[in-house]
Amino acid sequence: MDYLTAAGWPWLADPIARLRAAGAADRLPHSLLILAAPGLGAAELAAWAGAFALCEARPVARPCGECAACALLRADAHPDWHVVRIEEDAQQIKVDQVRELIERLVQKSYRGGYKVGLIEGAEALNANGANAFLKTLEEPTARTLLMLTAARSHRLPPTVASRCLKLALRPPERATALAWLRSQSGEAQGWEVPLALAGGAPLRAVELRRAGVVELDAEMRRSLADLAAGTLDLTLLAERWVRADPAPRVAWLENWITTRILAGVGGAGDSKTAESVRLPAAARGPKITAMYALLDAVRDFRRLATTGVNPQLALEALLLRFRSLSS
To answer: Distance of alpha carbon 174 from its chain centroid, rounded?
Structure first.
């Protein structure tokens, strides 16, 4: 990962400025919790913060990208930089991973400066891991920066979250995001749909466009129209989504439902896209409550997707709600 990348992203300008000011005042926090939806750059901001703490250039603006510490970071070889993340095929961050991190952080800095520990996706910490890390948060060693990244809907124990300075990342204004996407890609058109499906998160919009979101949009409209008409079995559709990757499809569904609700209550939104599945009428009157319930169910699915929930059964329940609403 390029530790200087995040500094050029306009939606991270404010949190980076706050960290720079804290560092200039010699008040860099000992623990930092970065909360963000996917695609806003939580991991990249944490990498920048770690590089800021470890950079050995003084008094040049940090991170300089040129000193020995920055070179080690770019080579992923800095002895005072430690990262813990969920292991492949695992569902939780294990307590042994946390204990190994703690053992490294209590040791003396190899380069005589800061020591930095990062737990990516900290909502995946199991109870024992969270308790083990809590002790380190309560009694941090000098010149140590502890960081966690998590979703805004994290399930971290309050005892852990309350001991960290929180940085909540928010999507940039739509115009800012579109300008950045166009400047980075050199392509002026075709970013509106990916950005909307990404919830305004520019990095996620890039991923969705690479994954063929235009084709996904057409696929989803056909599938929901067939489901509403009763010509498509919901079990087969859920199975198809699981095999293909449910995440972008559920994100599409959340955005689509939100647009229908806005159209149904007279807010901003374009209801023309709902004609094929007959939801403009369903979104008015007494069924508006059911629409909100469906939206809540979609968001619950996205929040619980990393907890081991059976995706096939969860998607079938979502699609059953949708079919009942559109009938």
So the answer is: 18
